[in-house]
């Protein structure tokens, strides 16, 4: 209860807060090959230090909240890759530990007036010898969110964007309970249960979050992938989902992620029409792919132009999902902090 109230107080007094951006594409930009069923969680095995570097790049850009690399991390997934049970359990928890370590390293670097950290430029030295940091977020101590991907992320078959799992709600509860419990053992500031494509999975997650033995009182939001201005990926309305979440005291907010940016304003308004809970939005960049030239175009400027629209519509947390990056999050932070 105390953790939930503390998180709500932070959001209310400091919002909109800046969330980080895409993780997988940043790992690829740093040379990582994540074409695997484990996706970015593969780096928990192969290169945990690069994970911390990506976290730091978003903190340096102004993120108030960074998400862990656990989106696709499951015990079953790691065991399928040949790891024993104890190793798999620790790899799932490692995703949160690395984010916490990155946050702490970042704060220590700033306290020591460091200009760089793990190869990331944090600021510039002024003529008087002081350091002006590029990142001056709303929070003196950024928050760590444990990324909790949907069942479809474990399946790695694209069903996280459709929700056609073919399983009962109870089965989804059994999937989520032990995994969320593992994340909570590392005491993140909040749980980001995200890219949820269907109402049944939202129900399963909400039930899981109601168990204090599982969550240890850690607050959470449930975020949906949406296919248009009013519907989540499986076809149910975002209003139906928001009405359900509004009744679940343990869930502090509702979100929209992995969604085209042009849909977000209407989705925020639908959510706000039925709940006063906090709203987190972190849509995709929204680029257009040209099949002839095999290139992406647009996206960045239009994404930035949307930020103030989302804020005015009622968003309390704003960040990015697929194909966003630290440069874009830095621009988002500038948009928010000048208001």
Automatic annotation (TrEMBL):
InterPro entries: BHMT-like, HCY_dom, HCY_dom_sf, Hcy_S-methyltransferase. Residues 5-336 form the Hcy-binding domain. Coiled coil: none annotated. Its cofactor is Zn(2+). The keyword Zinc applies. GO terms for biological process: methionine biosynthetic process; methylation; S-methylmethionine cycle. Keywords: Metal-binding, Methyltransferase, Transferase, Zinc. GO terms for molecular function: S-adenosylmethionine-homocysteine S-methyltransferase activity; zinc ion binding. Zn(2+) binds at residues 258, 321-322. Pfam families: S-methyl_trans. This is S-methylmethionine:homocysteine methyltransferase. It comes from Veillonella atypica.
């Amino acid at each position: 209860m105390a953790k939930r109230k503390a998180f709500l107080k932070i959001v209310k007094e400091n919002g909109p807060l800046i969330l980080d951006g895409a993780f997988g594409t940043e790992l690829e930009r740093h040379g990582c090959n994540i074409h695997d069923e484990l996706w970015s969680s593969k780096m928990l095995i192969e290169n945990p230090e690069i994970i911390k570097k990506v976290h730091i790049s978003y903190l340096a850009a102004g993120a108030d909240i960074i998400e862990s690399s656990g989106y696709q991390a499951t015990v079953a997934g790691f065991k399928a890759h040949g790891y024993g049970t104890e190793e798999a359990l620790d790899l799932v928890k490692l995703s949160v530990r690395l984010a916490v370590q990155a946050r702490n390293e970042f704060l220590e670097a700033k306290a020591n007036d460091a200009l760089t950290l793990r190869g990331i430029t944090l600021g510039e030295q002024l003529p008087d010898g002081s350091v002006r940091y590029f990142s001056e977020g709303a929070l003196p101590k950024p928050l760590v969110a444990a990324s909790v991907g949907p069942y479809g992320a474990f399946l790695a078959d694209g069903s996280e964007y459709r929700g056609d799992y073919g399983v009962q709600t109870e089965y989804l509860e059994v999937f989520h309970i032990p995994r969320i419990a593992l994340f909570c053992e590392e005491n993140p500031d909040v749980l980001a249960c995200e890219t949820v494509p269907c109402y049944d999975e939202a129900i399963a997650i909400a039930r899981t979050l109601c168990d204090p033995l599982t969550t240890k009182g850690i607050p959470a939001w449930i975020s949906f992938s949406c296919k248009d201005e009013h519907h989540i990926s499986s076809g149910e309305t975002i209003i139906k989902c928001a009405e359900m979440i509004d009744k679940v005291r343990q869930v502090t907010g509702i979100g929209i992620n992995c969604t085209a940016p042009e849909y977000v304003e209407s989705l925020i308004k639908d959510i706000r029409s039925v709940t006063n809970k906090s709203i987190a939005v972190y849509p995709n960049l929204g680029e257009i792919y040209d099949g002839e030239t095999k290139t992406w175009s647009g996206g960045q400027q239009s994404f930035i132009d949307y930020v103030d629209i989302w804020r005015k519509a009622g968003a309390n947390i704003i960040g990015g999902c697929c194909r966003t990056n630290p440069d874009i999050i830095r621009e988002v932070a500038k948009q928010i902090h000048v208001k």
